Amino acid sequence: MAELAAVQRETGRRSLPNGEARTVRLRRAYNAKIDDVWDALTRADRITRWFLPVSGDLRLGGRYQFEGNAGGEVLECEPPERLRVSWFFGEPAAGDVSEVEVRLTEDGDRTVLDLEHVATVDAERWATYGPGAVGVGWELGLLGLSWHLTGVEASFEERMAWGASAEGRELATGSSEGWGRALLASGATPEEAATATRNTTEFYVPPENAE
Description:
The protein has 211 residues and is α+β, with helices and mostly antiparallel strands. It contains 8 helices and 8 strands, in the order H-E-E-H-H-E-E-E-E-E-E-H-H-H-H-H. It has an 8-stranded antiparallel sheet. Helix 2 (34-42) crosses helix 3 (44-50), helix 4 crosses helix 8 (190-204) and helix 7 (166-185) packs antiparallel against helix 8. The two termini are 29 Å apart.
């Protein structure tokens, strides 16, 4: 519950040269120095310990690929405060935009992390899942970072097993509900927010007796 409460969630729209995009934004603090958080976000051996194995050229202008997940290009890099990358599953269609920007800010002995994912999204997919499809995934990833920064080391397999546990399912459900509230606050109707929350929860927390 403390991890759920630690995250501020926002969603909205942004006008881009090729059309309108959706935004998903998470903000939370870590009890770690800014240089340590930056190092955990940008060094391949540390990224693997809390997120996924990553390959490629992890420097400005280089390309990266997460194993079984997204890849892209390092677009901006300003240590230890700002990182912006493109973020695509497979080859993007012409005109598609998907970028993730992370900003770090010192707050005494803590570091505030602000992550924003901006992407062109199919209207039907947005109506079905809203921001939760991306938001819950990022939130679970940042939970892994929280564990890592406090010295809790868990393999990918252990993290996946935890996600399927009662505690993990409760966290994913709470996160989905939080993104439903963020969608409602952005101007969606109660019916739209309820539909997106229900579908997102079913995706991340399927019934335990499901085949």
